[in-house]
Design brief:
By secondary structure, this protein is an alpha/beta fold. The protein has a single domain, classed as Aldolase class I (TIM Barrel, Alpha-Beta Barrel). It has 14 helices and 14 strands.
């Protein structure tokens, strides 16, 4: 099955969902309301990884709508993306990094997505004219790297991916380019069956300017034989692969699960990069977020089960002020450090807050 025929079938409606799972009659109108507000999309490949007989299956929780999504506490813009948008689809929050929102579509829609406000929906936040975006980056020579994100850029047609990479590769002051993608996890055939895409990625991963792909693998069961094949194909093209994991309640919030995940990533050649604190997003916070106190202790317990390469990641909160690393807990205080900062004067700065064991975000401390 090539990726085009694979992508022709997704679970996209309440009716599609009932082919896999029995849903109580009282839940039906509420779930339909949720899907109308935040669309459902699950690739058939990923649907077949789910244990539909298990109501607590972690893979199912990540992609299947839940009544918990009716909870509106939180924000749709927890990291201040709107205030850092310079052009449609272009954010410039950190001096050295430009972020491009290339699309609002993905191979599957994560229910915990921090860009829930735009994924699968009509949005003005997606890049409109890529040439204008490139022009901005050319003018701002402090930018030495670009992250192409979304949505998922690898769901786009190969000709558009080629265009993005061609135009960005002409900018001399860029040291590297990153593509954020869950296609390897949700739709591996899109890569395995498209030799043209592999050739494009190979072409733009150069000895003096490597192409990076940043995956998001959140549970050991997502590491399938197909995923390993994708990673192998990308590595043969000299593409460097990093992973960001989101810490989530009842998904990977056990030390053994987290350790197994990070160890397996290293085993197949993926570099653990960040473990993100789940953001307090509307329709997400109450269902998925783990308190910082529990998260820090869980990460430290998990590290005892990891080798040195597996625990290179940083436990990060992607806050409006910057990427804030949780460093430790002592004497009823929790300690942080600015790993990245919107205000450059905060870079590397340590600070602390009085510990609240229920707090899930800096603003709650």
């Amino acid at each position: 099955m090539n990726w085009q025929s694979s992508s022709s079938y997704f679970l996209k409606s309440f009716e599609d969902l009932t082919d896999y799972e029995n849903i109580a009659g009282t839940a039906e109108p509420k779930l339909k309301k949720i899907i109308e507000r935040h669309p459902l999309r699950i690739s058939s490949y990923y649907a077949n990884l789910i244990n539909w007989d298990d109501p607590d299956d972690p893979l199912k929780k990540m992609v299947v709508p839940s009544l918990h999504e009716l909870n509106l506490s939180g924000s749709y813009d927890t990291s201040g993306e709107q205030s850092n948008t310079k052009l449609a689809g272009l954010q410039h929050k950190y001096s050295q990094t430009a972020l491009i929102i290339a699309t609002n579509n993905c191979a599957s829609y994560c229910r915990f997505c921090f860009r829930k406000r735009l994924v699968g929906l009509n949005s003005d936040e997606v890049v409109k004219k890529f040439e204008d975006t490139v022009g901005y980056i050319k003018k701002h020579k402090e930018i030495n790297n670009v992250l192409v994100s979304g949505g998922d850029p690898l769901i786009l047609k190969t000709k558009w991916i080629n265009k993005f990479l061609r135009l960005l590769s002409d900018i001399n002051h860029l040291d590297f380019i990153r593509i954020g993608s869950k296609v390897p996890i949700y739709l591996p055939h899109r890569i395995l069956d498209d030799q043209e895409l592999l050739n494009v990625l190979d072409k733009y991963s150069l000895p003096n300017r490597r192409l990076y792909i940043v995956t998001q693998i959140n549970h050991p069961r997502e590491i399938t034989d197909k995923l390993v094949q994708v990673i192998s194909q990308l590595q043969r093209r000299n593409i460097i692969i990093n992973n960001q994991t989101v810490l989530m309640k009842d998904i990977n919030d056990e030390a053994e699960v987290m350790a197994k995940l990070q160890n397996r990533l290293v085993a197949i050649g993926i570099n653990p990069y960040y473990v993100f604190q789940c953001r307090p997003v509307k329709r997400v916070k109450k269902y998925f977020q783990v308190p910082l106190f529990k998260g820090y202790n869980l990460i430290e317990e998990a590290k005892k089960l990891m080798n040195g390469h597996s625990k290179r990641f940083k436990y990060i909160m992607s806050h409006k002020k910057g990427k804030i690393e949780t460093m430790g807990i002592q004497n009823n205080r929790i300690y942080f450090k600015f790993h990245q900062a919107m205000n450059p004067r905060n870079l590397g700065k340590f600070f602390s807050r009085k510990l609240d064991k229920s707090a899930g975000w800096l603003d709650e401390l």
